[in-house]
Every structure is written in structure tokens, then in C-alpha cells.
Design goal:
Layout lengths: L2 H8 L11 H6 L1 H4 L3 H6 L5 H23 L10 H15 L17 H4 L1
Length: 116
Amino acid sequence: MPWASWLRARVSRREAPFLPDLDWAFVNPASVFASPHDVVRHPRLTIDCKREILQRWAWDEYLLDLANTEGMPESEPSRLEEVKAARRLVNAERSPDPAAPAAFFVLYHWDEALAA
């Protein structure tokens, strides 16, 4: 069973209308979402799911750019930079802030003489 179907089976019928068609989003993300940032802002998608959808969207946009540079007729402008920006946002959700202070541990030495 595809995992998108498994996810729908675990969600109540009341919440089902708010889920995008994940099976189709993995094939053609632009047909399900209006923009890459809609993927980032979707409250029901996991970070891994967002990452996979945006990866596929980036690949589609890369192929569109490649076709345009090879002289094929241009159909629509590429949104590759927009997809890359959305991917950076998703990656920032999972990874810690590198500027955050590091956690430290204080090691205590138990001294029997002081405890008495």
C-alpha cells in the first residue's frame, strides 16, 4: 500500500478534505499546490513529505530550465529559485540553529571528605 494511502486511512473522514492528493503531488507537485511555499506552509504534511514533494518539484523545474537552455520552445518561466527557497525553509525546520549556544554539562566530582 502506498504510504499516502496509509496516511489517508489513519486520518478521520472529517480531516480528509484538508489533505492534498499526495499520490498526485509526488508525480506533479505544481498541479496540486499553487506554489512551493504552499507545501512549506501546509499544516498536515510531515517535514519528510514536504521535502520529498519539493525535491520532485525541483527536478521538474530543473528539467524545464534544461529544455529552455537547449533551445526548446519556452512554455512557462522556471520556478527553480522559488522551489530552492522553499526547500531551505523546510530544511531549517528540522536542523538546529548553528548560532544557538551549545549545551554544556557540568561534571561533579563526589568528594567523600566534603560529604561527611
